[in-house]
């Protein structure tokens, strides 16, 4: 478990994050993705800005997130 302002994530390393929203998340009506950025001018083309979609099933070798737990306004992503 890690608490702090900076998070270090390595490509291919699984991690979990818990997010608290202002209302319950509904996969049928809500859209969500994560964005990871590093450096002063992050760019998708340079791999310094990564957009992570929510998916139903995780695949190897891809940046993806899946809801593994949901309790009211809190969701846990892996």
From TrEMBL:
Q: Which InterPro entries match?
A: Ig-like_fold (IPR013783), Ig_E-set (IPR014756), Transglutaminase (IPR050779), Transglutaminase_N (IPR001102)
Family, according to the entry, reads as follows: Belongs to the transglutaminase superfamily. Transglutaminase family.
Q: Where is the Transglutaminase N-terminal domain?
A: 2-78
GO terms for MF:
protein-glutamine gamma-glutamyltransferase activity
Q: Which Gene Ontology terms describe the biological processes this protein takes part in? A: nervous system development
Q: What is this protein called?
A: Transglutaminase 1 like 1
**Superkingdom, natural source:** Eukaryota
According to the record, the segments passing through the membrane are: none
